[in-house]
Write a structure and sequence with these properties.
The complex is a heterodimer of chains A (348) and B (270). With 348 residues, chain A is of the alpha/beta class. Chain A has 13 helices and twelve strands. The mean pLDDT of chain A is 96. In chain B, strand 13 and strand 14 form a beta hairpin. The mean pLDDT of chain B is 95. The chains are: A alpha/beta (348), B alpha/beta (270). At the A-B interface, helix 8 and helix 13 of A face strand 3, strand 4, helix 3, helix 7 and helix 8 of B.
């Protein structure tokens, strides 16, 4: 049997198998290193009727909403391209009445994922929000957006939010092994909670590494293998956003997107070129290099600044020393077996 | 016929067989960690071994001193915290866990807290540790009782087994359906639980043990499996693995101590 459980696959296969129309889909990344290729693949496969969760609605939410795939959006932040004169796909969908939305604070949104991750049905949050329209104005969640309870210990009014357990999380990380152990470092945001709260997890990574690498740096693992449904190796998989240790944000490319996003036609033309026009990330990179040159990519490639190594070593890795003697008794195995026999400890 | 073996080795091997490939396993210290290492080496190479301290997916190289023993392995896959180790069990991601037993009743309820009166105990045992939460939410729980006792009524109910028997555990609404203890290992045999009444019964008996000796230790009329068999003879591969990995477990605690002290004295004389 394939020891990886057959989890290593293309973005196309992963999205086709693990994202379904009508799913609650969470973008696991927060502000940086968005899982661009997985988002584009969801769009190419036209997975409709999504309830989309995103902590930091950036270009990723814009393209999914712009493609008409999102019925409901739960977020804390709406990207607006081009300032007052500009616009956004979310705004246009709200105006057209095709999108329902719930606004939360960053903390409330993250708390919902944390509750989901830990199997709680709700979680207390910071009560100041009760004075605001975040609390009063309810969208599709209605009464279940927030509920207030009495603290059983102090009698204080406690504001709560319900747990979120999205059907599927798409998330990009620096590296993973073929089993699915996913390592991510940098701005931790709510990435681990979003992934672990979800029922299925698709991990894309800059590179698939040997299991040894993971084993000698377990503090970097944010998602354990047994939770992961698919591992997709996609170099430059978060472009035009940034991945620490691999590349910076591509400000020029991001700028082009922002200009396009300010109108519906602009966004459509941009997506025709960069999402529908490229079958996969390799095709995307080819188009990018053809248009802007390799130099544009080289300019944002990260220079190394390695973290200090952590020593996971111990004094011994066997109960037997180099001479084949057990370290506490000083006996060889035959000597030990002779004693067991002599003492009548053996079952023949 | 394979080579001679010790009772300790037989016990470890019997427990190891409860771990299946691709399962997520919470190990307790002592016999279960050695069993886990054996299972991963011989029967279940893709099992994910975990400990409640947050050490996830490790392959022990030497026997563990406790449940936070990162010195027993060369790295591991995922470092999380104790809180998350329990909540992932709560969410159903743990297939099997292993617990030691002080007292056990007819329906697999456990006491690991005290013998005698709680406030003035004849013997104070460790308490719950992870036990009460793990047996609540792991899909299966394997119990090992090496120095404990069967009792009609526990002096203290630390960890919930099948409560009052029958469907009372499922009916309580507190636990995942179908969860609970799946087997008990003692130095005399292997016990399992009736699928309907949830009463414990003797399923296998170890070599050199007489049925009457088993019954003598149980204060009620112990049920015996119709197809009661003798615990099978270990294979050479199983015995070799344990002697190499955990010679201290193979020879037993008392003899180990004796031989270790003898070795120390010898060194001091030099």
């Amino acid at each position: 049997m394939d020891p990886s459980n057959g989890k290593v696959m293309t973005a196309k296969e992963a999205v086709s198998r693990f994202v379904h129309a009508g799913d609650a889909l969470v973008i696991g990344n927060y502000t940086v290193g968005s899982c661009a290729e997985l988002v584009y693949e969801v769009i190419r496969q036209r997975k409709k009727g999504l309830t989309l969760y995103s902590q930091s609605g950036i270009f990723d939410v814009e393209v999914l909403v712009g493609a008409g795939l999102v019925d409901k959006l739960v977020t804390t932040y709406v990207l607006r391209a081009g300032g007052r004169k500009g616009g956004s796909a979310v705004e246009r969908a709200l105006q057209a009445g095709t999108l329902q939305m719930e606004d939360y604070t960053n903390f409330d949104y993250n708390a919902r994922m944390v509750a989901g991750m830990h199997g709680m049905t709700f979680i207390p949050v910071l009560e100041g929000v009760m004075a605001t329209d975040l609390f009063r104005k309810r969208g599709f969640m209605g009464d279940d957006k927030f509920r207030v309870i009495d603290c059983p210990y102090t009698g204080k009014k406690i504001l709560t939010v319900p747990a979120a357990n999205p059907d599927v999380c798409i998330v990009h990380v620096q590296r993973a092994d073929k089993f699915g152990n996913a390592q991510y470092w940098g701005a931790l945001g709510s990435v681990a909670a979003a992934a672990l709260a979800s029922n299925r997890i698709i991990v894309s990574c800059e590179e698939i590494v040997e299991h040894d690498i993971i084993q000698s740096s377990p503090h970097l693992t944010i998602i354990p293998a047994y939770r992961v449904s698919a591992v997709v190796e996609v170099p430059w998989g978060a472009h035009p956003t940034e991945v620490l240790g691999y590349y910076n944000i591509d400000s020029a490319m991001y700028g082009l997107f922002m200009m396009a996003d300010s109108t519906a036609d602009g966004l459509k033309a941009w997506m025709d070129e960069w999402v529908f026009g490229c079958d996969n990330r390799a095709a995307y990179l080819e188009r990018y290099i053809g248009k802007f040159g390799m130099k544009a990519l080289d300019a944002i490639r990260a220079k190394p600044y390695y973290s200090a190594q952590a020593n996971y070593g111990a004094a011994v890795t066997s109960r037997w020393d180099r001479d084949g003697r057990e370290i506490f008794t000083g006996l060889t195995l035959p000597e030990m077996e002779a004693i067991l026999k002599e003492r009548g400890k053996f079952y023949e | 016929m394979s080579k001679p073996y010790t009772l300790q080795e037989l016990l470890i091997i019997s427990v190891a067989k409860e771990i299946h490939d691709y399962e997520n396993v919470i190990l307790g210290v002592g016999l279960p960690t050695t069993a886990g290492a054996l299972a991963k080496a011989l029967y279940a190479p893709h099992a994910t071994l975990m400990m409640e301290s947050g050490i996830i997916d490790f392959q022990p190289l030497v026997p563990l001193n406790h449940i936070a023993d990162a010195h027993s392995c060369r790295g591991f896959s995922y470092a999380t915290d104790l809180f998350s180790a329990f909540t992932m069990t709560y969410r159903g991601f743990v297939d099997v866990c292993f617990l030691g037993v002080g007292q056990i009743d007819k329906f697999g309820n456990l006491n690991t807290t005290c013998i005698g009166d709680y406030d003035k105990p004849a013997m104070r045992l460790p308490g719950s540790g992870g036990a009460a939460d793990f047996i609540s939410y792991a899909k299966r729980t394997v119990l090992t009782m090496l120095g404990g006792q069967f009792v009609e009524k526990l002096d203290y109910l630390t960890s919930p087994g099948y409560l009052d028997g029958g469907d009372s555990r499922d009916r309580s609404g507190l636990f995942p359906k179908g969860s609970g203890p799946s087997m008990l290992l003692t130095t005399q045999g292997i016990f399992r639980f009736d699928p309907v009444t949830k009463e414990i019964y003797l399923a296998q008996i170890h070599p050199k043990v007489k049925l009457d000796d088993v019954k003598k230790n149980v204060p009620w009329d112990l049920k015996i499996a119709g197809d009661l068999s003798e615990t099978p003879h270990p294979t050479d591969a199983e015995i070799d693995f344990i002697r190499n990995f955990a010679p201290n477990m193979a020879i037993g605690r008392e003899l180990m101590l004796e031989l270790t002290v003898a070795n120390l004295m010898k060194k001091m004389k030099k």
